[in-house]
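**Reference record**
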Amino acid sequence: MRDSTFVFGQWTINGDSEKEIRYLGKVNSKFGIIKVVTYLNYWGISKHLTCNIVFYDDRNRYIANYNIFSSDLPEMNDLGELIFINKECGQSKKTIIDLRNGIPNQIFISCDDVYGDLINLQK
């Protein structure tokens, strides 16, 4: 179900990890159906965070992922666009990535008109 979130484990100071998995939905791209899932993984005694956007095909086979440097993971609208709101820059800057033409090899998540994060697709 779209926008479903599942949490496994609970992070503790003793090093226990916590994983949050969220299904954003599916997109009908020109290359076929793409399913979009986000992963947050809290781990280690200092509560490190690993964030990913993972893509699957219509048969739930892994396609690729983006390793995101921020916990500001995207939402997805009904048009198949990922919408990032970057709140770590002192302002809210919106970046929209349209998945209907496929998964881009690189995305740029804006911080302002000049700076941001360039993220490569991992296959």
Notes: The chain has a mean pLDDT of 90.
